[in-house]
Amino acid sequence: MSLLIKGGRVVTDTEDYTADILCEGETITAIGSQLDSPAHATVIDAGGKLVMPGFIDPHVHIYLPFMGTYAKDDWDSAGRAAIVGGTTSLIEMICPAANEDPWEAYQLWRGKAESLAPCDFTFHMGVTRFDDGAADKFRRIVADGVASFKVFLAYKGALGVSDEELFKTLELAAELGVIVTAHCENETLVAELQQRLLAAGKTGPEFHEPSRPVRVEASGVQHLTTFAELTGASVYAVHTSNRAAVEAALAARGRGVKIWVETVIPYLTLDESYAQRPDFEGAKYVMSPPIRTKAEQEYLWQALAAGDVSTVATDHAPFDFQGQKEMGRGDFTKIPNGIPSVEERVKLLYTHGVVPGRITLNRFVDAASTQAAKLFGLYPQKGAIKVGSDADLVVWDPEHRGTISAETHLMQTDYSGFEGWQVQGRAEVVTVRGKVMAQSGKFVGEPGHGRFLARKPTH
Fold it and tell me: Cofactor(s) for this protein (predicted)?
């Protein structure tokens, strides 16, 4: 099976040039000018278009039992949506219950993706408790190819870990060379603020943000980095939403702490007014940490351009408005958290980042693909256009105009947080390991084409 992509403008995290790309089997085998086409090769004319490495979303939830319900997508629907949007690899957060065996949870989450995912996939292993037998189980999971952990400094009484558990997790991670991703808040402060707001009759979705203010998130980053400094572990603050939290990470980095920062596409495109929409419409925009002010949004763009924020993910957590988000009518703490966005991330980042000149094309590729590959042990297999890299490629039409709508998206939710938004640019052709999986905004691939990405610790 051969594929020749001709005459495209090849853009990576550091390069920008015109070339042909030859893919044979699952890998890139040649890059150059006027490459000969092998017999029976599929030839794609990329003249006038960009050719970029397949995008990587390092923070998604697909199988997710949460707040008394389950996320709507499965690996088939989420994978199709990701691919049509230009994303060829997903890293899912495994979120076991505190009483769930870690190895069994890992097997369960992985089994949900095997033979169903059309895109490639791997996991961050959630640590929701760290008891006497935990270390051996986590070592086994790492040996099986999972090179990152996830901890929650939130969700008291559920997913959150104690300080003792956090310390032991980071110690083990430092020993194994595993990076620890972390949801940074302060679970005690959040719980207290929630109860005070509810007691005052402030029950609507507009009170979700005041229950988790900026300083609570920043204190979570400070807490994480203190433990990272003492253990020597590498850490990664997920879905960072504001200046104070980013600056806490940068201050720790200045002390030598190995920390990287992620933001997510809702924080770059939405602001707090969406969660304040009347008639419970704001529930569609409840996620944690919450969507912040326009000033915070603008700061995040600047931090992204400067490289202080390394990656742009989604925190894709798909719940219906009807029947699921509505569980929180009369009590905002019961609204399932999350905004479905795995399909729209790349288009929104291009439209609101590259088109107005907020970020360069190279930074766009870096933040949406290459940095995730480097941080999570996938580079240069993924996130690169190099001979020997996987033939995960996106032929991008920079002139295409489109409209986002729940009527046409492939995610299984009954709403879009970006309903009616106009976007510029789309993935015209998407390949996963040399196989064409999407064309002209349509999924054309095979279900189950995706493969588990076994990774070795790199930290």
Answer: Zn(2+)
C-alpha–C-alpha distance, residues 204 and 183, integer Å: 24
List Cβ neighbours of 224 (8 Å cut-off, separation of 6 or more).
153, 166, 182, 184, 235, 237, 259
Residue 55 inside a domain? The answer is: no
Averaged pLDDT score across all residues of the chain: 97
Q: Give 418-454 pLDDT, tens digit per residue.
A: 999 999 999 999 999 999 999 999 999 999 999 999 9
Judge whether 18 lies within some domain: no
At 215 the three-state DSSP class reads helix
Query: 335 CB contacts (<8 Å, ≥6 apart)?
Result: 67, 205, 208, 283, 286, 325, 327, 328
Task: Report the C-alpha gap between 445 and 459 in whole angstroms.
Answer: 35
Model confidence pLDDT, tens digit, residues 9-42: 999 999 999 999 999 999 999 999 999 999 999 9
pTM score: 0.98
**CA dihedral sign of residues 274, 277, 282, 288:** positive
- For residue 249, give its domain range: 60-375
Cβ atoms of residues 441 and 402 within 8 Å: yes
Q: Where are the alpha helices (DSSP H) in 114-186?
A: 134-143, 163-176
Dump the DSSP string for 285-342: G--SSPP--HHHHHHHHHHHHHTSS-EEE--B----TTTTGGGGTT-GGGSPP----T
